[in-house]
Specification:
The chain is an alpha+beta fold. 42% of the residues lie in helices and 38% in strands. A six-stranded mixed β-sheet has the order 2-1-6-5-4-3. It is elongated, with a radius of gyration of 23 Å.
Length: 185
């Protein structure tokens, strides 16, 4: 039997049992109704968490494949992206323009999900990104240097689309991998 159907039937049977037991007194009925509502809310929350994770996995697949034209299936056209350093990018088209420049030097990019959690409309993921850097970085030409950096993201997802997004990644670690040294002022 399908797991979701089994889960739904189980909740229905539990709800019926609680409501039958509650017929003895109004207080018991009120308690049973509250328990049923709590169970239904928990089930909806699990469904939302699974949906959020699917949206993110779909995005990562599209991003890694270079199928950027399909981003509108998982990102709202008016999405707000909060980039490191307090920079806000508003709108899907501006986000794609930024990514096409920022990620162009990263060849053979891959992402490994280290941890993820989702509650309600929010998803947070921690990733390790790997790529080969081919291009200019902070005024210096870089040729074929492997990089690996950590990235954390929190996304607000509504109706299957990312509507707001916060990103932070290890810029210092990546700069060091590319041969830059931290110098005191």
């Amino acid at each position: 039997m399908d797991r979701k159907l089994f889960h739904t039937l189980g909740l229905g049977a539990l709800a019926a049992t609680l409501l039958l037991a509650a017929c003895a007194s109004p207080a018991a009925k009120k308690t049973a109704t509250a328990q049923v509502e709590a169970l239904q809310e928990a089930a909806m929350s699990r469904d939302q968490a699974a949906s959020n994770k699917q949206v993110v996995q779909t995005f990562l697949g599209l991003f890694m494949s270079g199928n950027w034209d399909a981003f509108d299936t998982v990102i709202a056209t008016d999405c707000v992206l909060h980039e490191p350093g307090g920079v806000d990018i508003v709108g899907l088209e501006d986000m794609k323009a930024l990514w096409q420049v920022a990620y162009a030097p990263l060849k053979e990019i891959g992402a490994t999900t280290i941890a993820e959690t989702s509650e309600g409309e929010f998803y947070t993921g921690f990733y390790t990104m790997e790529a080969t850097y081919e291009g200019e970085y902070m005024g210096r030409q870089i040729a074929g240097v492997p990089v690996q950096f950590n990235q954390a993201e929190t996304m607000h997802i509504v109706d299957g689309k990312i509507v707001e997004w916060w990103v932070e990644f290890d810029r210092l670690g990546m700069a060091e991998e590319l041969g830059f040294e931290l110098q005191p002022k």
